[in-house]
Specification:
The complex is a heterodimer of chains A (about 400) and B (about 230). Chain A is α+β, with helices and mostly antiparallel strands and about 400 residues long. Chain A has 11 helices and 10 strands. A 6-stranded mixed β-barrel of chain A has the order 2-3-8-5-7-6, surrounded by 4 helices. In chain B, about 45% of the residues are buried. The chains are: A alpha+beta (about 400), B alpha/beta (about 230). Bound molecules: adenosine-5'-triphosphate and magnesium ion.
Chain lengths: ~400, ~230
C-alpha cells in the first residue's frame, strides 16, 4: 500500500511539473503577446546595426552620431506612416541636496513615454502630466543611489540650473536587460528648452496598416542610411518581428520545461514498473489460482495493466491538482525574483490542452510501465504459481 | 452407454533428468465416465496430486496423451487450455486457494468473470451456489474472516460456478475437522447425484469407501480397487 502511494507520488510530481511548467510558459506567452501586440503597428528606428533589443531601454548611440531632423521629415513623408515621434538624448548636470553629478537626459513625447514604459513598474508617483512643465521621471538608481539623500515624488532637482519636479520614480529593475535605473525622463519640449539640442537617439512611428510595417521599415532603413552615407547606420525594427522572436524563444523555453518534466515522468514510470514487479511476485500464488480456475494470459495481463493505469491516472489527477497550485507558487517566486510589476506580472494559464496532455501522458506511462510486469505475470505456469509459497 | 469425459493414454510425469530422474507418475491409462465418483488413495508422495494436476490441465504430462471430452489437450493452445480449465473442470485444492482480497461472493464470481458472464447473472448464480453450500450469511466475508470448512465450501461454490462436467478435489477435507469434512463430502456427493463427475483425493478410508470407484496409487502407478 505504501509502495503504491510512493509510486503515485512519483507520477503526481511528474504531472505536476508538466502542468505547472506549461501553465507558466503559456502565461509568459500571453503576457508578452498581449503586451506587444497592442503595439503591433509601431516601428522603432535606432542607430547602429544591432537593432532595438530590449523594451524600456535602447537609444544609446554607438558612434556618437544622432538622427537628424531631415531623417524625421523623410520618414514622415513615407507612404503609410501615421505619426512620428522622437526620443532625444543628452547629458546634463543634476543637483540635489547640495551634490552635483552628471546624468544622461532623455526627452520624448509623453504619449510615447507611456507606451514605452508601460511594462515598467513604478515605485511611486505616476507618469508626466500632459501640459505640465518641468516635470521629470527618474529611475530607481537616481532616486536612491546617486545623491546623498533619497529623492521622493514631489522632490525638486536642479538640472542645468533649471528646477524640475519628480512626478514618478521607476521601480528597481531586476536582472533583465538595459537598465532604467539611471533614467532621467522629461518631455521633448522641456528637453529642447533645457538643452537647446535635438539629438535624436530613437525614432518611434506608427503605421496605418500593420501589414505594411515590414516594407516601411525597409524603406526607412534605406532612406536614413542614404542620408548618412553609411550602410548600416539605422535599424528599423517592427514590433511584429520582436513579437515573433519573443514567441519563438518562449516556445523553445516551453519545450525545455516539458522535457524536464518528462524526465520526472520517466523516473516515475520506472517506479511503477518496480512496484508492479514486486506486486506480481507477491501475488504469484493468486495468479496461479486465477489461471487454475480459467483465466487466460490476456485476463492476467489486463489485470496488471489496468492496475498500472489506475495508479498512474490517480497520480496524474493528483498531479494536475498539485500543478494548479504549483504553477501559482512558481509564478509567485518568479515574479518576486524578477521584481516585475504592473501589467507584466506573470499569471499562470492552465489550458485544456495541457490537462488533456497530462491525463494522456499519465495513462500511457501507466500502460507502458506495467506491460513488462503484466507479461511476466501472464506467462507463469499455473501449477508452479499455485505451489509457490 | 455413458461417455468418457477423461481418457488418459500412457501418461507419465517425470521430474529431473536421468540418472536422477523421479517418476511422479508412470504409464497411466484411465477411462473416466460421465457421472462417475472416484476416490484416489495412496501414501504421501505416491503421485496423487501429480495425477490430479494433469487431469485438471494445470500441468502437462512428460509423455502420453490426455483427452478431455474427446479433445487431445496436448494440441490445445494457451487460450483453449484456459477455456477447458474454466468451463469443463472445477478444481478444489486442499488449501482452499481463495483470493484473499476478495470476499466470498467475489471469489465465486471470479471464474464467471473470466468466462465473460455479465455481472448480474454472475451475482445471481454466485448467490445461489453459496446458498447451496449454506453460506448465504457469509457473502461479504473475506477468506481470513471464515473458518477452514467455510472457505472450502466457498471453493466448492467457485468450482461449480461455470457448471463444469468434472470436479477435481485434491484432499478437500485435508485441512478441516471431521464434521466439516463430512459436510463437504455430502455437498460433493449431492453434486455427483446431479450428474457431475467427481474425482476426490483423500487419506480418509471412510470417505474413500463411499465412492463408486476406488483408485489406489503407489510409487506413481495406479491400481484399480473395486469397492
Ligand atoms: N516440482 C517437483 N519437482 C520434483 N519432484 C516433484 C515435484 N512435484 C512433485 N514431485 C515428486 O513427485 C512425487 C509425487 O508427488 P505428489 O505431490 O503427486 O504426491 P502426493 O501423492 O500428492 O502426496 P501427498 O499425499 O503428500 O499430497 C513426489 O515424490 C514428489 O517429491
Ligand atoms: Mg498431494
Amino acid at each position: 500500500m505504501s509502495r503504491s502511494l510512493l509510486t503515485l507520488l512519483g507520477i503526481a510530481i511528474g504531472i505536476m511539473a508538466i502542468i505547472s511548467l506549461m501553465a507558466l510558459g503559456e502565461g509568459m506567452q500571453q503576457a508578452v503577446t498581449g503586451e506587444l501586440s497592442s503595439l503591433s503597428d509601431v516601428i522603432i528606428v535606432s542607430t547602429g546595426g544591432g537593432g532595438f533589443s530590449t523594451f524600456g531601454g535602447g537609444g544609446s548611440t554607438s558612434n556618437g552620431e544622432y538622427f537628424t531632423q531631415r531623417d524625421v521629415a523623410d520618414i514622415q513623408r513615407l507612404q503609410g506612416v501615421k505619426e512620428v515621434s522622437t526620443q532625444l538624448a543628452s547629458s546634463g548636470l543634476a543637483e540635489y541636496n547640495g551634490k552635483t553629478t552628471i546624468v544622461s537626459l532623455t526627452g520624448m513625447d509623453i504619449s510615447v513615454m507611456r507606451l514605452q514604459y508601460a511594462s515598467q513598474n513604478l515605485e511611486a508617483g505616476g507618469f508626466l502630466n500632459e501640459g505640465e512643465q518641468n516635470e521629470i521621471m527618474i529611475g530607481y538608481g537616481i532616486a536612491h543611489n546617486t545623491f546623498d539623500a533619497n529623492i521622493s515624488v514631489g522632490g525638486r532637482i536642479k538640472i542645468n540650473g533649471e528646477k524640475f519636479f519628480v512626478s514618478g520614480i521607476f521601480g528597481k529593475q531586476g536582472m533583465g536587460g538595459t537598465s532604467s535605473d539611471s533614467l532621467v525622463l522629461m518631455s521633448s519640449r522641456d528637453f529642447q528648452k533645457l538643452t537647446g539640442q535635438s539629438n535624436i537617439s530613437l525614432i518611434y512611428l506608427r503605421v496605418y496598416n500593420v501589414n505594411d510595417a515590414e516594407s516601411i521599415a525597409t524603406s526607412i532603413q534605406n532612406t536614413i542610411n542614404g542620408n548618412h552615407g553609411q550602410k548600416d547606420f539605422a535599424t528599423a525594427t517592427t514590433m511584429t518581428s520582436i513579437l515573433k522572436t519573443v514567441q519563438s524563444i518562449i516556445g523553445i523555453l516551453q519545450l525545455v520545461l516539458v522535457a524536464i518534466a518528462s524526465i520526472a515522468l520517466v523516473v516515475a514510470s520506472i517506479g511503477i514498473m518496480n512496484t508492479m514487479l514486486t506486486s506480481v511476485m507477491e501475488r504469484t500464488r493468486e495468479i496461479g489460482i486465477m489461471k487454475a480456475i480459467g483465466a487466460t494470459n490476456l485476463d492476467i495481463m489486463s489485470i496488471f495493466i489496468i492496475e498500472g493505469m489506475l495508479v498512474s491516472s490517480i497520480g496524474g489527477i493528483i498531479g494536475i491538482i498539485l500543478g494548479v497550485f504549483g504553477s501559482q507558487g512558481l509564478t509567485m517566486i518568479l515574479n518576486s525574483y524578477m521584481s516585475m510589476g504592473g501589467s507584466s506580472r506573470l499569471t499562470p494559464i492552465i489550458t485544456l490542452t495541457s490537462v488533456v496532455l497530462a491525463v494522456t501522458v499519465s495513462i500511457i506511462v501507466g500502460v507502458l510501465s506495467s506491460l513488462y510486469p503484466a507479461w511476466k505475470a501472464a506467462r507463469m505456469s499455473p501449477i508452479e504459481a499455485v505451489r509457490y509459497e | 452407454m455413458t461417455k468418457d469425459v477423461i481418457v488418459t493414454q500412457h501418461i507419465s510425469k517425470t521430474y529431473g533428468r536421468p540418472p536422477l530422474q523421479v517418476f511422479a507418475l508412470r504409464e497411466t491409462n484411465l477411462d473416466i465416465k460421465q457421472g462417475d465418483y472416484i476416490a484416489i488413495i495412496g501414501p504421501s508422495g505416491s503421485g496423487k496430486s501429480t495425477l490430479m494436476n494433469l487431469l485438471g490441465c494445470l500441468d502437462k504430462p512428460s509423455t502420453g496423451k490426455i483427452f478431455i471430452d474427446g479433445s487431445d489437450v496436448s494440441t490445445l493452445n494457451e487460450k483453449e487450455l484456459a477455456r477447458i480449465r474454466r468451463e469443463k473442470i472445477g478444481f478444489i485444492f486442499q488449501k482452499y486457494n481463495l483470493i484473499p482480497t476478495l470476499n466470498a461472493l467475489e471469489n465465486v464470481e471470479l471464474s464467471m468473470g473470466f468466462a465473460g458472464v455479465d455481472s448480474q447473472t454472475r451475482t445471481k448464480k454466485a448467490k445461489q451456489l453459496l446458498e447451496m453450500v449454506e453460506l448465504s450469511k457469509r457473502l461479504t466475508h473475506k477468506p481470513s474472516e471464515m473458518s477452514g470448512g467455510e472457505q472450502q465450501r466457498v471453493a466448492i461454490a467457485r468450482a461449480l460456478a461455470n457448471s463444469p462436467s468434472i470436479i477435481l478435489a485434491d484432499e478437500p477435507t485435508g485441512n478441516v475437522d471431521t464434521k466439516s469434512g463430512e459436510n463437504i463430502m455430502r455437498i460433493l456427493e449431492d453434486v455427483n447425484r446431479k450428474g457431475e463427475t467427481i474425482i476426490v483425493v483423500t487419506h480418509n478410508m471412510a470417505i474413500a469407501q463411499r465412492a463408486k470407484r476406488l483408485l489406489r496409487i503407489q510409487d506413481g502407478e495406479v491400481r484399480e480397487d473395486h469397492v
